């Protein structure tokens, strides 16, 4: 029976591209590791942010579109994306969010303290201190390495059929139920990043997608063979998985679990350095081979943006 190490990546719909890049690189200090297009709709960017190399368990991806309608967070979605920071980091992040005029609130669950806030499109984000997981080697935008985001701490799932979603987490993904409190069930995967998953115990009504909502959550498969094993298992359970598709940087297979959340099984290899060296990740627009002949037709649909630090020298500003 295959066992997932945890989250591979999370993909969301957001609004304007410059605002998206400013928030995740400029505010959160993540690295833009890949600039490409939605392989199913090449007139839309697909941006990937993560640690220095975009390791599985650190990758947040976006389909940014100007003037797209806002969605509503609810059942059948990832409700909250959780990032892990090193122990002793939350005070830094409180000060940083205040500096950028980003409202936040302190919350707690399962004995841990979290900072909750929203990004510029309305996605809910939690920061939590975790000792497990490798420290970041990427520093940008005024975020020191000692406080930098490691990757995912996990996610809070909003299911419209919690009992069935729990069954998928336990029986298909082989996660371990470890705790329950105040309407939440906590699961643990085997990895050390992106490995703590919380689930609502009571069903949540479905909501519609749009900017500020998560499109899908992907779980890690070690390799092609393990992904094939999962596909057979999911099919035997009657959950109708898609065929396996090549996303260049990983192979992907999707299915919608009974609580309405779109799940993906994604392979760890080959990774983002398959078409760019580590030092230059995210610098150029990378297109799959089938779209490369149409580059000149695709480019006019994509807004220009810059990866920029939002820090400034106060003395220079006064001048």
Describe this entry's structure for a reader.
- With 319 residues, this protein is an alpha+beta fold.
- The chain has one domain (7-318): 2,3-Dihydroxybiphenyl 1,2-Dioxygenase, domain 1 (Roll).
- It contains 6 helices and 16 strands.
- The chain has helices spanning 17-27, 90-99, 162-172, 224-236, 295-298, 314-318; strands at residues 7-14, 31-38, 41-50, 59-64, 77-85, 105-109, 112-118, 124-129, 151-158, 176-181, 184-188, 196-200, 213-221, 245-246, 251-256, 262-267.
- The strands form 2 sheets. The protein has an 8-stranded mixed beta sheet. An 8-stranded mixed beta sheet has the order 6-7-8-5-9-12-11-10, covered by helices on one side.
Name of the level-1 CATH class:
Alpha Beta
For the CA atoms, what is the radius of gyration?
Answer: 19 Å
Average residue pLDDT: 95
Helix amount = 10-25%
Counted by DSSP, the helix tally is: 6
Q: Please identify, by name, the CATH architecture.
A: Roll
SSE string: EHEEEEHEEEEHEEEEHEEEHH
Compute the number of structural domains: 1
Number of E-type strands? 16
SSE-based structural type: alpha+beta
- Unreliable spans: 313-319
Shape descriptor:
globular
What summary fits the major beta sheet?
8 strands, mixed
- Terminal CA distance reads 64 Å
Proportion of residues in β-strands:
25-35%
Query: What is the name of the CATH topology?
Result: 2,3-Dihydroxybiphenyl 1,2-Dioxygenase, domain 1
Order of strands across the widest beta sheet? Answer: 2-3-4-1-13-16-15-14
């Amino acid at each position: 029976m295959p066992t997932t190490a945890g989250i591979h990546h999370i993909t969301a719909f957001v609004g304007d591209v410059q605002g998206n890049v400013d928030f995740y690189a400029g505010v959160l200090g993540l690295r833009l590791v890949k600039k490409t297009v939605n392989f199913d709709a090449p007139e839309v960017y697909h941006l990937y942010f993560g640690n220095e190399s975009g390791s599985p368990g650190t990758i947040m991806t976006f389909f940014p579109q100007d003037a797209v309608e806002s969605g509503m967070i609810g059942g059948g979605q990832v409700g909250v994306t959780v990032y892990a920071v090193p122990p002793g980091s939350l005070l830094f992040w409180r000060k940083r969010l205040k500096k950028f005029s980003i409202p936040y609130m302190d919350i707690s669950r399962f004995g841990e303290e979290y900072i909750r806030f929203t990004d510029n499109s309305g996605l809910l984000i939690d920061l939590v201190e975790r000792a497990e997981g490798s420290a970041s080697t990427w520093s940008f935008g005024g975020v020191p390495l000692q406080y930098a985001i490691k990757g995912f701490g996990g996610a809070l799932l909003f299911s419209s059929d919690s009992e069935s979603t729990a069954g998928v987490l336990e029986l298909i993904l082989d996660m371990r139920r470890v705790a329950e409190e105040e309407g939440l069930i906590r699961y643990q995967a085997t990895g050390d990043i992106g490995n703590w998953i919380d689930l609502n115990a009571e069903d949540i009504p479905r909501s519609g997608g749009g900017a500020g909502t998560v499109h899908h959550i992907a779980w890690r498969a070690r390799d092609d063979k393990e992904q094939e094993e999962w596909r057979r298992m999911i099919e035997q359970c009657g959950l109708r998985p898609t065929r396996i598709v090549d996303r260049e940087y990983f192979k992907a297979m999707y299915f919608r679990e009974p609580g309405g959340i779109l799940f993906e099984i994604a392979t760890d290899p080959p990774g983002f350095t398959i078409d760019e060296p580590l030092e230059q990740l995210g610098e150029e627009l990378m297109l799959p081979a089938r779209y490369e002949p149409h580059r000149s037709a695709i480019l006019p649909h994509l807004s220009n943006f810059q990866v920029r630090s939002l820090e400034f020298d106060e003395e220079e500003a006064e001048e």
